[in-house]
Amino acid sequence: MTVEEAKEFLRENGYFMGNLWRVEDVQSKFDCTDEEAQEVLERAMDAEGTYEAIWFNIDYYGEEDNLTPIKNPQENEGS
Length: 79
Hints:
Elements: H1 3-12, H2 23-27, H3 34-45, H4 48-64
């Protein structure tokens, strides 16, 4: 399977594939091995601030596009 085929497979299964990072992105800024670059990417992508920014922007652009919000099931517990 080619990279493009793999991306298309993932896209067809609901994954966003428009913004993928590669070790070369890290290596364009730092002199490091592929393994070290993977570690940097993993830590950057798993950082709490990254998650917060993504969730904020999902809310922002969903509201901007006038999408109907779904109530959090936890908000309805005990009602």
